[in-house]
Design a protein that fits this description.
alpha/beta; Rossmann fold; globular
C-alpha cells in the first residue's frame, strides 16, 4: 500500500496575498481584479521551503466574489492565473487548488447554497485528501481566519494561525482548542512547520 502524502493546506487572501482596502465598504477584502493581487512579503519563500520539506501545497479558499456579484468569473480566473504567475517567478507552484465559489446569500442564483465546501466546513480539505492521497493527521491547515482553523480542526489536521491571535478567539474553536502554531507571517509558519 502506497504511503499517503503530507500536505500544507493554505488559505489565500491574507495568508499568501495582501488584502485590498474596499473604500465603498470601509473593509479589507479579497482582490477583485488581477491588478490588485500582490503577494505578501516572504510568501514565495515560505511555499518553497514547505515544498522542499516534502509537503504537497494545496490551496483551500472561500471565494464568493462572483456569487456576490462583485466580479465576473473571468475576473476570478485572471486573479487565479496571476497568483500562479507570481509564484512561478520563484519556481513555486501549488500541487492543487480547491475553491468554494458558493455563498448562502449569493446574488448569482446558481451559486446560492449552503454547501459542505465553504469553510469552516472541512469539505474542500476532505476532497483534497481523497483525490491526492493525503494523510490529514500529518498535514497542516494554515490561514489568517477562525474559519480556516475550524476547517482544519474538523478535518483532523494540525492548524496554523497567521496573525495576532487573541485568546478570547479560542472560544470559537472546537472545544476552545488553540491552533498548534501561531505565527506572524507565512514564512514564520513555514519555518515552524519544517
Amino acid at each position: 500500500m502506497k504511503k499517503k502524502s503530507r500536505a500544507v493546506f493554505l488559505d489565500r487572501d491574507g495568508t499568501i496575498n495582501k488584502m485590498v482596502f474596499n473604500t465603498d465598504h470601509g473593509i479589507l477584502d479579497s482582490p477583485l481584479s488581477s491588478g490588485q493581487l500582490e503577494l505578501l512579503s516572504g510568501a514565495s519563500r515560505a511555499l518553497s521551503l514547505l515544498k522542499k520539506g516534502g509537503f504537497l501545497l494545496v490551496l483551500i479558499s472561500n471565494q464568493p466574489g462572483v456569487a456576490k456579484g462583485k466580479m465576473k468569473m473571468g475576473d476570478f480566473l485572471e486573479i487565479d492565473r496571476r497568483l500562479d504567475f507570481l509564484l512561478s517567478k520563484s519556481g513555486t507552484r501549488f500541487d492543487a487548488k480547491f475553491y468554494c465559489l458558493h455563498h448562502p446569500d449569493a446574488k448569482v442564483k446558481s451559486l446560492r447554497r449552503r454547501c459542505l465546501c465553504r469553510k469552516p466546513k472541512p469539505g474542500l480539505i476532505l476532497r483534497a485528501a481523497r483525490e491526492l492521497g493525503i494523510n490529514l493527521a500529518e498535514s497542516y491547515m494554515v490561514g489568517d481566519g477562525i474559519t480556516d482553523i475550524q476547517a482544519g480542526l474538523s478535518a483532523g489536521c494540525k492548524t496554523v494561525f497567521i496573525g495576532n491571535f487573541k485568546p478570547e478567539l479560542w472560544n470559537y474553536l472546537k472545544g476552545g482548542k488553540k491552533p498548534d502554531i501561531i505565527a506572524k507571517s507565512l514564512l514564520e509558519a513555514a519555518r515552524s512547520i519544517i
